């Protein structure tokens, strides 16, 4: 009986190898994303946040077009007009509002703070889904939201009571940016279900890049690009190509192999990685209040995101986020 239930060694080797590869890639990606906060702050010093956005949105549309060409050749899928409007709104949410605010928030805040605040994204997603009536929250999830909010207040109090208003305002901007990414996540779900993740990501990038380029054009023209050292060009490639473009493609494959539920908790390693890299690279320091607030925040987000489903049946069409 057991021999029938167990797959042959050769059959099991493939999935096991993919699992190990996915886990190793996930660990490497967390290191890339965690260190990217410090890399971006270095780039902003040389290019300004506006100059970085200008360069990023010259590169990202090319990447999106190459991705579409690789998937569909020269015959990109045609969509109804209503879908194009939905993709335009998605591009404005994800690129103009989220990425734009994140860029300035990171510039005004610190690497560790930026990573921690952006890790609060699942909290906003839960609240948006509950507000839209699409999902219900369990008591454990509500408690997790409360714990996370308390942790953020403790974390921010260290800066605000110390008079570090610019860093504190950067954290508040990042909170707003995290809410926009949650709105992007909720809005993207039906589009992805209809058209697939690659098409939605690529089209939203192509549409969203236009207003970002228009707004960042003066900052981009003010940069002396020929005078930038190799380190800045390498950092730009690291941040835009490796972290933003390749990183999210790889993360999609990792989720497909390991499943979202098993992969999502790895994201909570990103703030500690960002803090360690910032401490080593820039000498960023941490007080006991800041570390305590960070721990409370991450615990609250984890509780809210991974609390169990309720046992009672739910109304038709309503689900609960794990």
Compile the SSE list and pairings:
Blueprint: H1 2-5, H2 9-72, H3 81-108, H4 111-118, H5 121-131, H6 139-160, H7 165-195, H8 197-222, H9 230-258, H10 260-263, H11 270-282, H12 288-306
Helix pairs in contact: 2-3, 2-4, 2-8, 2-9, 2-11, 3-7, 3-8, 4-7, 4-11, 5-7, 6-12, 7-8
Describe the structure.
- With 322 residues, the chain is mainly α.
- It has one domain.
- Helices cover 80% and strands 0% of the residues.
- It starts with a helix and ends in a 16-residue tail after the last helix.
Observed structural traits:
globular, 322 residues, mainly alpha
Query: Rg, please?
Result: 21 Å
| Domain count | 1
The computed structural class is mainly alpha
Helix content percent band: over 70%
SSE sequence, one letter per element = HHHHHHHHHHHH
- What is the number of E strands? 0
Could you give a short account of the major beta sheet?
none
Tell me, rounded to a whole number, the average pLDDT: 85
Proportion in β-strands:
under 5%
Q: Any low-confidence stretches, pLDDT <50, length ≥5?
A: 1-12, 310-322
Helical stretch tally: 12
